[in-house]
Amino acid sequence: MIISNMSVPIMGMADTAMLGHLEQASFLAAATLGTNVVALCYWMFAFLRMSTTSATARGEGSSNVVDATQQLNANLWIAFFGGILLLALQTLLLPWVMTLMTQDAELYALALDYCHIRIYSAPAVLLTYVAMGWLIGMKHTKVALLITVFANALNVLLDYVFIVRLDFDVQGAAAATLIAEYTACVIALGFVLKQLYRRQLLQYLGKKIHRELFLSTFSVNSDLFLRTLAILFTFNFFHAQGAAFGDDILAANAIIIQWVLFTAFFLDGYALAAETLTANAVGARDERRFHYASFAALWASFVIALGITLVYALCYRWALPLFTSIPSVQTQVMEYSFWLLAMPLISTWCYALDGIYVGAGKTRVMRNHMAAALFIVFLPAWWIFKPLHNHGLWLAIVLFNGFRGLSLGLAYWTLSRRHAWFSTVYKEQQP
Fold first, then answer.
1. Rg (alpha carbons) of the chain, rounded to whole number
2. Of 323, 297, 244, nearest in space to 21 by CA
3. Lowest-pLDDT range, 11-25, 46-60, 148-162, 370-384?
4. Phi then psi for 307, rounded to 5 degrees?
5. Given this model, what pLDDT does residue 426 score?
6. How far apart are CA 56 and CA 39, in angstroms?
7. Boundaries of domain holding 150
């Protein structure tokens, strides 16, 4: 899962590196804003991947694979209609969100062009969330790895063709990612259907969803939706505020954020492993195995985060020219590089704990702590540290992730002391 996740931010890194070598910083800034607007639309549905993984792994742990397949059925329909809804609303949604992100007319036009191309991958991306969630829950992680690596390699190749060879700049970056996303969807869904056929479960995809499963699916998905929405608001607010400091700082933040996302996806490999293994333990009602998986994930994530910090400290000066050749942007990256080194060690705890809570079905706890991190920590910190300008923005993000890890850690201790991990919102259904 680590190797698979590492390949995900390569799409963003490839766009950043190739656009960062064009003459104008506005191309990179526009792609950054466009990517974040599209991500805002897509990641509102990221609950589909998480809830599918948890339900599938719990079903495997309790030998209740029929109910898990019906959960897959429900999420596939949500993903399909969610993608169609995003396409239908694009002419209203994208300009409105972009207006909130920037007031620069040139940047607005370039970023909106990017968004209007990328948004057509909405059905494919949301269906892929569900398919990959099922693959992870079933522990077909090698298949998930191959699909992700192939799609991202295709994206990098198409980036080179469209941006470097054909000079399509921002539109080329969007088209490359669009093609790669549809490719991943077709491959992932094909493998899921093949495995369901082999297990004689394919017929459950077409069955009517019973009321209890619908209610439990709605409850979990709504909690995860609100939690994801809070994260997306935080990082898009970060980019919107950074845009006010000029194209160079926005481009520099984009480069640092790509490294931060690389760290997040790397460490999220342990979060996904923890999600699957803890869900298996909850399904089997094995408390000892649950805590063993949780502590293994937390400890390994910390060691990996420490290693990433050391690598960044030694290599980021050497790697910077690979991302941009614009001297003013390079100067800004050096100015704010401290925050790149701080993020892995502070953020590793919330990443791993998120996986544990999703696996256990404690999505409401996650939602509440995320809301507290946003309204009690991030927004007040941003306001208090506004005189520090971009440094204040980065400090607010670091405090946001630090509070998430600390508060979820305290909640873990409380739930463990009460032996409350198995009182979950999911309903056990008999096949």
1. 21
2. 323
3. 11-25
4. -65, -40
5. 42
6. 25
7. 2-417
**Is 426 within a domain?**
no
**Is residue 424 one of the residues assigned to a domain?**
no
Encoding tokens for residue 33? 């804003």
Q: Which amino acid is at 81?
A: F
Domain count, the chain: 1
Q: What is the distance between the alpha carbons of residues 45 and 82, in angstroms, rounded to a whole number?
A: 8
Is 431 part of a structural domain of the chain? Answer: no
Angle at 115 between CA 113 and CA 118, to 5 degrees: 115
- pLDDT score of 427: 43
The predicted-structure confidence for 127-140, as pLDDT tens digits, reads as follows 999 999 888 888 88
Neighbours of 25 (CB within 10 A): 23
CA 173, CA 115: separation in Å to the nearest integer? 11
Q: How far apart are CA 102 and CA 122, in angstroms?
A: 23
Place of tokens 């999420």: 75
Closest CA to 180 of 215, 148, 136: 148
Distance CA 417, CA 296 (A): 19
- Angle formed by the axes of helices 287-323 and 337-360, to 10°? 150
pLDDT at 330 over 90: no
**Residue 63 contacts by C-beta under 8 Å, 6 or more apart in sequence?**
none
